[in-house]
């Protein structure tokens, strides 16, 4: 058993706002294995970005870590002085942000921006840094790197800008990369190129990735493991196959069913009724209970513990309790699985 | 003979005309929208789909070409009452439910603005009744009438935007990326609401989006745009299952599929050519493509 790169334990984060204290992250425990892509899935306000911002210690001033720890390389990042954090950020821990326009400085030439982390963290001359920056620009697929080195961000398209952001994040060969919705602002054809690039580079460098997204199609393509977040809590986690083929929590099932696919007919799409709970006064029990047609009485009273489904798969739903009634939620998802299994087979045959 | 509510003939919209940065946002596009159908328009950012939608509703004046709405040429409407009449029959739902609602107007005033302009109500209590009815129609409680947009979630705001569009009882609605700012589970809610309203109000939709799986789900026919041109047009099934243009094929191949097994073996194509300037040609009944024979 190899050691985890990053371990988040019982993390809770509050925000002070004018309306009251928002409990944005509540008792989150996560492990990141070496070299894997862990997808953090959830809707806006579920706490996925707050969790990773805590790891990077980039929380705004009104946020407070109430409890928990973030262990990296034998140390608790939450207790580290700012100076040591600065040595890690952009070096061993890196982040790619959602919007490549706001992540880049519009007044600085891109080459200089890519070199910045190198000059900050490594003892290199400007010329050596320049050589390394050019090499990584080529690696992320920027043609004519030498000429483009002196361009400004506005001279690049959205997809190219995201490649520059990726180059900046990976230039110091980080151990952990946080990708916060890196393709949400991009067109689908560009998205598939960027996803392929992230996959290729993380394999080459052995980087472990936390990938935040709400798009389950993207998750299916890139993730090794998946954690589903809702209302500040993790409700279910497992391998990508566990989550897509054997979802246990009604919220996971609801998310999968509300994701459209090309083979759907009219009436096949199911929506989750209602809205997410207010996290100033979060519900006591399962946070999804008020939107769950199969909610049990105990769901409103007590937060379910994680039930073990398999060695890799855990879900926090009372439906897995011995006394719970048996409900079958996944008919349509099983049909979808069969449909795509056939397509995958056809694709494999076409290869031969 | 199908009944066309909208006919678009050789529509062109150029921005910055005559300058060095002239943009051919829409470049010779022709299609029809049948009464009672959902016409999906897909394409990537910069493909001209939003500009096309705005030309259809007379929010932009086309550089050349005609937009015929219910037998009348929209680009030739000049008189005030003609324009007003046209704008009452048509409405738009916008992409961003955060920036498309005036933060200083109450929900009542937002929904009632069109009713006031088109003098659809006689007095205040009539107006409140009408607003309440529209709010119920889109699944909002009329109790929230006096609230302001900031008090609502994204999905609820989009419901307010839909209520505003439907209050004047239009027959044709252009929805420009109405889902892209919303969460997945909320997207499904809004799509189902739009389906329900279509049946309840006999609406015709033009649904503009880049998410082709959602467009496939809601549309009867789909048009595919790229660099200002319409490259392919056909029923939703034909476009998705038998795409002919290499650009349509590449677009479909890039859409992520929520199935890990298939997602890992799936082939992706890229299309980087500039499409030749060809007219649409009917290859199968109702399926048109801009490709040489």
From TrEMBL, chain A:
Q: How does it sit in the membrane?
A: Peripheral membrane protein
Query: What terms describe the molecular function in GO for this protein?
Result: ATP binding; ATP hydrolysis activity
- Please name the InterPro entries in this protein's record: AAA+_ATPase, ABC_Ni/Peptide_Import, ABC_transporter-like_ATP-bd, ABC_transporter-like_CS, Oligopep_ABC_C, P-loop_NTPase
Q: Which Gene3D superfamilies match?
A: P-loop containing nucleotide triphosphate hydrolases (3.40.50.300)
Write out the entry's keywords from A to Z. ATP-binding, Cell membrane, Membrane, Nucleotide-binding, Transport
What are the subcellular locations of this protein?
A: Cell membrane
A GO term from the CC aspect: plasma membrane
Coarsely, its chief localization is membrane
Tell me if DNA-binding is a UniProt keyword of this record: no
Which residues are in the ABC transporter domain?
8-256
Q: Could you provide one GO biological process annotation from this protein's UniProt record?
A: peptide transport
* The keyword Cytoplasm appears for this protein: no
Quote the Pfam families the UniProt record gives. ABC_tran (PF00005), oligo_HPY (PF08352)
The family annotation for this protein states: Belongs to the ABC transporter superfamily.
Q: What is this protein called?
A: D-methionine ABC transporter, ATP-binding protein
Taxonomic source organism: Limosilactobacillus secaliphilus
UniProtKB/TrEMBL annotation, chain B:
Q: Name one GO cellular component term.
A: plasma membrane
Keywords (alphabetical) are: ATP-binding, Nucleotide-binding, Peptide transport, Protein transport, Transport
Q: Which GO terms describe its molecular function?
A: ATP binding; ATP hydrolysis activity
- Which CDD domains would you find in this protein's record? ABC_NikE_OppD_transporters (cd03257)
- Entry coiled-coil feature ranges: none
Look up and give the membrane topology term: Peripheral membrane protein
The UniProt entry lists the main location of this chain as membrane
> Its Gene Ontology biological processes?
peptide transport; protein transport; transmembrane transport
Q: Cross-referenced InterPro entries, in alphabetical order?
A: AAA+_ATPase, ABC_transp_ATP-bind, ABC_transporter-like_ATP-bd, ABC_transporter-like_CS, Oligopep_ABC_C, P-loop_NTPase
Is Transport one of the keywords UniProt gives this record? yes
Compartments reported by the entry: Cell membrane
Query: ABC transporter domain spans which residues?
Result: 6-252
Q: Which domain of life is it from?
A: Bacteria
Instruction: Spell out the PANTHER family in the cross-references.
Output: D,D-DIPEPTIDE TRANSPORT ATP-BINDING PROTEIN DDPF-RELATED, TRANSPORT ATP-BINDING PROTEIN
Per the record, the similarity remark reads:
Belongs to the ABC transporter superfamily.
Q: What name has this protein been given in UniProt?
A: ABC transporter related
């Amino acid at each position: 058993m190899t050691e985890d790169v990053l371990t988040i334990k019982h993390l809770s984060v509050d925000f002070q706002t004018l309306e009251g204290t928002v409990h944005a992250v509540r008792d989150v425990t996560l492990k990141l294995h070496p070299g894997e892509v862990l997808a953090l899935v959830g809707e806006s306000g579920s706490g996925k970005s707050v969790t990773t911002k805590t790891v990077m210690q980039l929380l705004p001033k009104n946020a407070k870590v109430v409890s928990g720890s973030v262990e990296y390389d034998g140390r608790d990042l939450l207790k580290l002085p700012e100076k040591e954090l600065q040595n890690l950020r952009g070096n061993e821990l890196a982040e790619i942000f959602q919007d490549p326009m706001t992540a880049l400085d519009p007044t600085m030439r891109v080459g200089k921006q890519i070199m910045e982390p190198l000059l900050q963290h490594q003892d290199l001359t400007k010329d050596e840094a320049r050589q390394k920056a050019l090499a990584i620009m080529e690696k992320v697929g920027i043609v004519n790197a030498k000429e483009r080195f002196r361009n400004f961000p506005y001279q690049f398209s959205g997809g190219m800008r995201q490649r520059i952001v990726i180059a900046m994040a990976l230039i110091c060969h980080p151990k952990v990369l946080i990708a916060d919705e890196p393709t949400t602002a991009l067109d689908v054809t560009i998205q598939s190129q960027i996803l392929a690039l992230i996959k290729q580079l993380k394999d080459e460098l052995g980087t472990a990735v936390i990938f935040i997204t709400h798009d389950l199609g993207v998750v299916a393509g890139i993730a090794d493991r998946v954690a589903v977040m809702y209302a500040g809590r993790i409700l279910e986690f497992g391998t990508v196959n566990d989550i897509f083929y054997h979802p246990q929590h009604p919220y996971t099932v609801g998310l999968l069913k509300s994701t459209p696919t090309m083979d759907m007919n009219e009436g096949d799409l199911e929506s989750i009724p209602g809205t997410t709970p207010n996290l100033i006064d979060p519900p006591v029990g399962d946070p999804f209970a008020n939107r769950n047609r199969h909610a049990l009485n105990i769901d409103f009273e007590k937060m379910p513990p994680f039930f073990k489904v398999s060695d890799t798969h855990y879900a926090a739903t009372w439906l897995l309790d011995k006394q719970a009634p048996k409900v079958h939620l996944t008919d349509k998802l099983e049909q979808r699985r069969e449909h795509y299994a056939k397509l995958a087979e056809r694709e494999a045959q076409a290869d031969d | 003979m199908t009944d066309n509510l909208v006919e678009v003939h050789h529509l062109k919209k150029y921005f910055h005309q005559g300058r060095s940065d002239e943009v051919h946002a829409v470049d010779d596009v022709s299609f029809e929208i049948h009464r009672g159908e959902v016409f999906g328009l897909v394409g990537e950012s910069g493909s001209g789909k939003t500009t096309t939608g705005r030309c259809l509703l007379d929010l932009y004046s086309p550089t050349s070409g005609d937009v015929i709405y219910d037998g009348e040429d929209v680009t030739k409407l000049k008189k005030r009452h003609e324009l007003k009449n046209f704008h009452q029959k048509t409405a738009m739902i916008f992409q961003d439910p955060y920036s498309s609602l005036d933060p200083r107007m109450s929900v009542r005033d937002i929904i009632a603005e069109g009713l006031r302009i088109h003098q659809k109500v006689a007095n205040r209590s009539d107006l409140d009744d009408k607003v309440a009815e529209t709010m119920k129609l889109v699944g909002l409680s009329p109790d929230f009438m006096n609230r302001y947009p900031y008090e609502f979630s994204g999905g609820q705001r989009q419901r307010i935007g839909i209520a505003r569009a439907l209050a004047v009882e239009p027959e044709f609605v252009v929805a420009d990326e109405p889902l892209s700012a919303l969460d997945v589970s909320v997207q499904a809610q809004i799509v189902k609401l739009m389906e329900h309203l279509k049946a309840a109000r006999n609406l015709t939709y033009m649904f503009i989006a880049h998410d082709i799986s959602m467009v496939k789900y809601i549309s009867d026919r789909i048009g595919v745009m790229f660099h200002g041109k319409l490259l392919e047009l056909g029923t939703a099934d034909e476009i998705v299952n038998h795409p002919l243009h290499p650009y349509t094929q590449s677009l479909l191949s890039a859409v992520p599929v929520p199935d890990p097994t298939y997602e890992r073996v799936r082939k992706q194509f890229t299309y980087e050519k500039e499409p030749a300037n060809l007219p649409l040609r009917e290859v199968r009944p109702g399926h048109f493509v801009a490709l040489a024979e």
